[in-house]
C-alpha cells in the first residue's frame, strides 16, 4: 500500500486509541533497515511508522557530507516508492529535532513539504517531532506554537516532548534532575493552554515517566507508566473533556517489561519508538554470520574466499530478517499485530 495520506494517518491514530493498541515507530538509517521494517510489519499484519533522526538523516545523505535535510527527504521518497509493494499502511516521521537542529533538519524538510502541498501533492512526512526537552518549558511551548500552524496547514501532525527522556539518542543527550524525568500535570496544562486539544492543529505528546534512551536490562529503569493515566485524568478534569484527551508517545522503552508497556498503552500511548533493540537485532545477526562464515568472507592464508558469502546481499538478507523479527515482536507487544486494514 502507499504511504498513508494525512487523513489515513489521522484515522490510524484514532483507531489505535479506540482499539487500545499502539504502533511501533522504528528508527531507520538505510534502505536495508527500511526494508527490514516493511518486512516485519507485513509479517505481523501491522501498520506502523518509519522515522528518521538527525543522525539517521546525516547517514542517508552520505556520512562524508553534512546534508541531513537532503538525507531525510531521500528517506521519505524511498519509503514512498517501495512501500507500495507491501500490503500494509505506513507513515513517515522525523524524530527528535532539538533546537540547534531546527535550521538544518526540521525547518527545511517542512518547507519541502509545504512546496509539495502547494503544488497539489501530499506532505513528504506525516509527522514531525520538535524536541524541546532541553530548553525551558516556556520556550519549548513557544516554538511548538510556531510549528503547529505550519504542520496543520499541510496535513501533518506535530510531536512534542514535555519532560525529559534521559540518556542519549543519535548524539542528542538529555541530562537533568530525576524530577525532570517525570512530567507533571502542571507542565502539560501549560502546553494544552497554548496548543489546544486539536482545534489549533493535531499534535501528539511524548510525556516522560522515567524513560531513558539507550540500553538497559529489564528493571534497570524506574518507569511509572501509571503517571500517564494520572495526567490524562488531570487534563480531562481541567479542560472538561472525555477520558484520555491526549495522544501519547512512549520514548526510551528498551528494557521495559510487558506489563509496563501494556500499562502505558492502556493510558493512551498510540506510538512507541523503537531503535536500540532493532539496531542490535540487525547487527547481532551480521556478527553471527561473519563468525560462522569466517573463511568465506575473508581471504584467509592467501585464499580467494567465497563471493557468495561475502556478497553484501548474503548477509544483508539475514540482517533484515533478524531486524524484521524484532519488529514483529514489537507489534505483538503493542497490540498492533493483525490490526492492519491492508
TrEMBL record:
UniProt KW Translocase keyword: no
Bound cofactor: record note: Binds 2 Zn(2+) ions per subunit. One is catalytic and the other provides a structural contribution.
A Pfam family reported for this protein in Swiss-Prot or TrEMBL: F_bP_aldolase
Catalytic residues of the enzyme: 95 (proton donor)
Single GO biological process annotation from the record: glycolytic process
One term of GO molecular function: fructose-bisphosphate aldolase activity
SUPFAM superfamilies in the cross-refs: Aldolase
Involved pathway(s): Carbohydrate degradation; glycolysis; D-glyceraldehyde 3-phosphate and glycerone phosphate from D-glucose: step 4/4
GO cellular component, one term: cytosol
Annotated Zn(2+) 2 binding sites: 131, 161
Catalytic activity field: beta-D-fructose 1,6-bisphosphate = D-glyceraldehyde 3-phosphate + dihydroxyacetone phosphate
Alphabetized UniProt keyword annotations: Glycolysis, Lyase, Metal-binding, Zinc
EC number: 4.1.2.13
Cofactor(s) the record lists: Zn(2+)
Top EC class for this record: lyase
Source organism, top-level taxon: Bacteria
PANTHER family tied to this protein: FRUCTOSE-BISPHOSPHATE ALDOLASE, FRUCTOSE-BISPHOSPHATE ALDOLASE CLASS 2
Protein family according to the UniProt entry: Belongs to the class II fructose-bisphosphate aldolase family.
Name the UniProt record assigns to this protein: Fructose-bisphosphate aldolase
Source species of the chain: Microbacterium sediminis
Amino acid at each position: 500500500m502507499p504511504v498513508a495520506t494525512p487523513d489515513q494517518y489521522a484515522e490510524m491514530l484514532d483507531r489505535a486509541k479506540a482499539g487500545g493498541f499502539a504502533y511501533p515507530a522504528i528508527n531507520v538509517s538505510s534502505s536495508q533497515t527500511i526494508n527490514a521494517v516493511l518486512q516485519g510489519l507485513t509479517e505481523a499484519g501491522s501498520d506502523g511508522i518509519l522515522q528518521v533522526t538527525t543522525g539517521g538523516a546525516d547517514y542517508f545523505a552520505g556520512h562524508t557530507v553534512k546534508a541531513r535535510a537532503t538525507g531525510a527527504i531521500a528517506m521519505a521518497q524511498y519509503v514512498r516508492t517501495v512501500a507500495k509493494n507491501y500490503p500494509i499502511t505506513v507513515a513517515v516521521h522525523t524524530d527528535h529535532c532539538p533546537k540547534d537542529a531546527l535550521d538544518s533538519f526540521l525547518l527545511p524538510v517542512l518547507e519541502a513539504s509545504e512546496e509539495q502541498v502547494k503544488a497539489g501533492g501530499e506532505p513528504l512526512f506525516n509527522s514531525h517531532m520538535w524536541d524541546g526537552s532541553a530548553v525551558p518549558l516556556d520556550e519549548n511551548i513557544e516554538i511548538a506554537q510556531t510549528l503547529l500552524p505550519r504542520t496543520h496547514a499541510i496535513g501533518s501532525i506535530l510531536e512534542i516532548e514535555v519532560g525529559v527522556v534521559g540518556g542519549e539518542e543519535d548524539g542528542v543527550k538529555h541530562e537533568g534532575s530525576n524530577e525532570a524525568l517525570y512530567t507533571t500535570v502542571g507542565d502539560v496544562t501549560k502546553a494544552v493552554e497554548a496548543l489546544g486539544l486539536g482545534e489549533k492543529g493535531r499534535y501528539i505528546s511524548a510525556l516522560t515517566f522515567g524513560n531513558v534512551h539507550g540500553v538497559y536490562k529489564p528493571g534497570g529503569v524506574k518507569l511509572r507508566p501509571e503517571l500517564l493515566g494520572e495526567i490524562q485524568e488531570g487534563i480531562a478534569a481541567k479542560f472538561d473533556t472525555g477520558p484520555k484527551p491526549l495522544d501519547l508517545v512512549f520514548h526510551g522503552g528498551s528494557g521495559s517489561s510487558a506489563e509496563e508497556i501494556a500499562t502505558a498503552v492502556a493510558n493512551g500511548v498510540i506510538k512507541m519508538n523503537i531503535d536500540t533493540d532493532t539496531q542490535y537485532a540487525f547487527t547481532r545477526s551480521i556478527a553471527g554470520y561473519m563468525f560462522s562464515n569466517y573463511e568465506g568472507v575473508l581471504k584467509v592464508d592467501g585464499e580467494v574466499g567465497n563471493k557468495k558469502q561475502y556478497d553484501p546481499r548474503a548477509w544483508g538478507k539475514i540482517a533484515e530478517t533478524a531486524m524484521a523479527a524484532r519488529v514483529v515482536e514489537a507489534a505483538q507487544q503493542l497490540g498492533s499485530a493483525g490490526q492492519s486494514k491492508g
